[in-house]
């Protein structure tokens, strides 16, 4: 097991990509905190890990709420003794053209993706900096950390933003053995994506099948969705890389949709 003795805090881990990452990190021996705004779903996802022989707890946490982030992180430290890995993954999607984009939606998007990334990072750093024990922080970016798509102004802005935070953390954290990265998936069929298919069909005036084939998979080299497993494997690779040669990077996992 590659992560025996490590503790991971994964946000937005009650569903989709976060849940897949939590499952894989636990499978590799990490004690995992499944943090999510949906407390019941977080507990269910944690219990599923425990039922498979892993160590996990559900942690209710709204990543936009400073007190909730600090209290949830404290709960993880009390349960497992520290935090070695943070995966700042919680996210939502709201699609609309810029001229119709509600300011409240814009602020909510940036709060969840950017405030959430900042607040969770700041909350775990005292654990990672303690005695320079170090750790790895992974931000969930997207191909939209590098590319634009219509209807996704706030999302593309937020996903570009996490690149900056990851690079600053790579610089500041190096002295304490902390590394940071952005993992940038292409489309993965999670609830976040399923919701967008009819919404984009309506906004773009095309069929749902065209949204899938053209908008979501048209840029890939093989017309295939990225999977939860693909993203979780990438996170595991970054968390277990043996030296600081790899830090401050963005890794795109998208079937060639974006090549850097
Ligand atoms: P999902 O909807 O399946 O899961 C998102 C989780 O985040 C949910 O459990 C939700 O309750 C939680 N969440 C939402 N707001 C929260 C908050 N304020 N505090 C804490 N938790 C909150 O979505 P997903 O597709 O698994 O997306 C996870 C991440 O991956 C997001 O950052 C998303 O932008 C990113 N991403 C997804 C795709 C994709 O194709 N699915 C591609 C690239 C990047």
UniProtKB/TrEMBL annotation:
<dbReference type="Pfam" id="PF00106">
    <property type="entry name" value="adh_short"/>
</dbReference>
<protein>
    <submittedName>
        <fullName>3-hydroxybutyrate dehydrogenase</fullName>
    </submittedName>
</protein>
<dbReference type="GO" id="GO:0032787">
    <property type="term" value="P:monocarboxylic acid metabolic process"/>
</dbReference>
<dbReference type="GO" id="GO:0003858">
    <property type="term" value="F:3-hydroxybutyrate dehydrogenase activity"/>
</dbReference>
<dbReference type="InterPro" id="IPR002347">
    <property type="entry name" value="SDR_fam"/>
</dbReference>
<dbReference type="InterPro" id="IPR036291">
    <property type="entry name" value="NAD(P)-bd_dom_sf"/>
</dbReference>
<dbReference type="InterPro" id="IPR020904">
    <property type="entry name" value="Sc_DH/Rdtase_CS"/>
</dbReference>
<comment type="similarity">
    <text>Belongs to the short-chain dehydrogenases/reductases (SDR) family.</text>
</comment>
<dbReference type="InterPro" id="IPR050259">
    <property type="entry name" value="SDR"/>
</dbReference>
<dbReference type="InterPro" id="IPR011294">
    <property type="entry name" value="3-OHbutyrate_DH"/>
</dbReference>
